[in-house]
Design a protein that fits this description.
It contains 2 helices and 2 strands; from the N terminus they run E-E-H-H. It has a two-stranded antiparallel sheet. 55% of the residues lie in helices and 16% in strands. It is of the alpha+beta class.
Length: 67
């Protein structure tokens, strides 16, 4: 399990309203989330038929235009 050292940000009435974590912990959490999402995307794509070169170029062109 990931050991997360955190500092709580408290409001004036001593209610926790936020958390501060160091950048290396944040980057590790971010990497874990991205890997998890990528693994699900790969599992979903396993059933799809592969695209030929022309179809792949068109697909990626549409992806760039939508961003």
């Amino acid at each position: 399990m990931l050991d997360i050292k955190r500092q709580y940000v408290m409001s004036e009435d001593n209610t926790p309203v936020g958390v501060i974590i160091d950048i290396s912990t944040f980057e590790r959490i971010e990497s874990i989330i991205e890997d998890y999402g990528l693994s699900h995307y790969i599992e979903e794509a396993d059933d799809d038929e592969p695209l030929d070169r022309a179809e792949a170029r068109e697909y990626y062109k549409k992806m760039k235009e939508s961003v």
